[in-house]
Amino acid sequence: METLNTAHPVIEQCNHIPQLLNIKDVGSYTGLSRSTIYEMVNEKSDRYDPTFPKKVQLTQVRVVWVASEIAEWINNKIAKRST
Asked: Measured between alpha carbons, how far is residue 38 from residues 5, 64, 65 in Å?
């Protein structure tokens, strides 16, 4: 019979759940202000960036971003500087 690690059973069983970032964390990782981030995701804005990760609407007032998508966007920006 296989035994489960009981130290963190929920975390280990759910390690496939994506990490979510709030607006403050996205700003911290990207160096962008809150208003710039919201302008970059707004298709009607002059600052709209279709490459910027889409927000995830959790509730009517709560939005987050997927951490791996933010990391990928940052890595793509870094890769483009050397071309």
From this structure: 42, 12, 12
> Residues 48, 40: contact at Cβ < 8 Å?
yes
Q: For residue range 34-75, what is the model confidence (pLDDT) as tens digits?
A: 999 999 999 999 999 999 999 999 999 999 999 999 999 999
For 46-52, the CB contacts below 8 A with 24+ separation are 51/76
User: What pLDDT score does 5 carry?
Assistant: 53
Residue bearing tokens 């019979």: 1
Tokens of 10: 């929920």
Give phi and psi for 35, each to the nearest 5.
-65, -35
Residue 21 three-state SS = strand
pTM: 0.78
